[in-house]
């Protein structure tokens, strides 16, 4: 299969159908196609595929199918030949335009075997290995050029893991049609969504992000900086909003029961998995907390959230338990988000004040400014379990406790719901 940067005069299906390739003019994209076929033939391949002329672009059904399956096609290819038309034979490919295009990200990640060719169809740096993905020097250059770690370059699995990182990889890439910025990521996330050419790029991206949250419960994709989308103010209007490096995640370890919570905005699924193994500020305690309310280091515009009328009846869920609370998801363009958790980085018990009941702590948590919390009972084992301590911010009214417990805390709870973004 061929991966390349489209140029002038690319052949279409109608241009080559029923005609010998080598009898056509060698100008523009036709010459590139001929050279691609010759290189493949030299390597004993009898069939080749190029996106310029192997897709009937006049058939919307074929275009939809192709976009939905192209990642799998590249994954199953025996060899992907990457042609870098702007890289001199003795040059380095780090500044090639190929690394700035949206569709070429999946064409880099999906294939198990890749060979890079320079503008005169010579192997990159005369490397004769059968797969440039196995060459340490090429991997190092690829990592610098793309921001993608080498472990993903050599062994990438499509899906919803590390969603925020995947968006970061695509954040500096562009496509000729704005909607393709989102469509080119369908295969990387292993999602199949309708292709609606003519919609705005922000709408296409928002549909993708809503599906990521609904399928995974991962709200790290809400961590962005930029212009809001008309589709939903929780989402950015452009993929470039993810150019800021994603928060590093701590991956779970069953033996050490380590946290999978993001340092700023956590995956609710990960928080649910931690129940029973962590020392956590229980949701039922929130109504009695005395808080010096901080600003939130959460980089999206504040939005008013509510559970839609069509939400599953509340008796299905135990809203006093993280284990049974519903995962975040989108429904009728409404974000259903029971809570957000913040990892605590420092806890210090303040001096006892006989005039104040309870125990007061100075707390620092990732994504929040320092705050003060008063609890009715002392936290146990702070030194031993500090790394496993989390603040949970409820977004669903049922997570604030019974109505009787909330009578004197309505004002504070309302403030909790309307923290401003910075």
Describe this structure as you would to a colleague.
The chain is an alpha/beta fold and 422 residues long. It is 26% helix and 11% strand. It contains 13 helices and nine strands. The chain has a four-stranded antiparallel sheet, with no helix packed on it. A three-stranded parallel sheet has the order 1-2-3. The longest helix has 17 residues, at 60-76. The radius of gyration is 26 Å and the shape is elongated. The two termini are 46 Å apart. The model is unreliable at 248-268, 270-319 and 404-422 (pLDDT under 50).
Which characteristics define this entry?
single chain, 9 strands, 3-stranded parallel beta sheet, 422 residues, 4-stranded antiparallel beta sheet
In short:
This protein is an alpha/beta fold and 422 residues long. It has 13 helices and nine strands.
Structural class: alpha/beta
Strand order of the largest sheet: 8-7-6-9
Radius of gyration: 26 Å
In terms of quaternary structure, what is this?
single chain
Number of helical segments with 4 or more residues: 13
Average pLDDT, rounded to a whole number, is 77
The low-confidence runs, each spanning 5 or more residues with pLDDT under 50, are: 248-268, 270-319, 404-422
**How large a portion of the residues is in β-strands, by DSSP E?**
5-15%
The H-and-E topology, N to C, reads as EHHHEHEHHHHHHEEEEEHEHH
What is the helix content? 25-40%
Number of strands: 9
Main pleated-sheet profile:
4 strands, antiparallel
Shape: elongated
Q: Give the N-terminus to C-terminus distance in angstroms.
A: 46 Å
């Amino acid at each position: 299969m061929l991966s390349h940067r489209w140029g002038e005069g690319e052949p279409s299906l109608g241009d080559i159908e029923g005609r010998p390739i080598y009898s056509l003019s060698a100008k523009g994209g036709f010459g590139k196609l001929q050279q691609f076929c010759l290189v493949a033939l030299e390597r004993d391949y009898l069939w080749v595929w190029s996106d310029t002329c192997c897709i009937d672009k006049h058939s919307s059904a074929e275009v939809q199918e192709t976009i939905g399956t192209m990642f799998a096609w590249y994954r199953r290819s025996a060899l992907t030949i990457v042609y870098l038309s702007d890289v001199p034979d003795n040059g380095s490919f780090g500044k090639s335009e190929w690394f700035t295009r949206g569709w070429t990200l999946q064409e880099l990640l999906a294939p198990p075997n890749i060979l890079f060719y320079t503008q005169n169809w010579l192997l990159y740096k005369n490397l004769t290995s059968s797969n440039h993905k196995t060459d340490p020097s090429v991997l190092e250059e690829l990592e610098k050029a793309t921001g993608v770690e080498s472990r993903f370059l050599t062994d990438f699995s499509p899906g919803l893991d590390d969603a925020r990182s995947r968006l970061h990889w695509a954040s500096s890439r562009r496509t000729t049609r704005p909607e393709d910025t989102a469509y080119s990521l369908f295969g990387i996330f292993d999602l199949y969504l309708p292709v609606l050419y003519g919609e705005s790029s922000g709408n296409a991206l928002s549909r993708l992000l809503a599906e990521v949250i609904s399928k995974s419960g991962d709200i790290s994709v809400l961590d962005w900086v930029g212009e809001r989308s008309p589709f939903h103010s929780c989402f950015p209007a452009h993929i470039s909003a993810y150019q800021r490096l994603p928060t590093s995640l701590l991956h779970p370890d069953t033996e050490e029961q380590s946290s999978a919570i993001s340092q700023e905005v956590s995956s609710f699924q990960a928080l649910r998995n931690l129940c029973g193994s962590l020392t956590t500020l229980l949701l039922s305690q929130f109504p009695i907390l005395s808080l010096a309310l901080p600003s939130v280091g959460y980089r999206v515009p504040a939005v008013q959230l509510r559970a839609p009328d069509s939400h599953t009846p509340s008796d299905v869920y135990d809203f006093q338990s993280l284990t049974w609370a519903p995962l975040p998801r989108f429904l009728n363009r409404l974000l259903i988000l029971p809570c957000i958790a913040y990892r605590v980085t420092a806890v210090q018990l303040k001096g006892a004040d006989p005039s104040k009941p309870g125990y007061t702590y100075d707390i620092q948590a990732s994504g929040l400014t320092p705050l003060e919390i008063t609890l009715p009972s002392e936290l146990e084992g702070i030194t031993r379990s500090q790394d496993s301590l989390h603040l949970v911010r409820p977004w669903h009214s049922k997570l604030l406790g019974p109505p009787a417990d909330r009578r004197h805390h309505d004002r504070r709870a309302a403030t909790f719901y309307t923290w401003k973004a910075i």
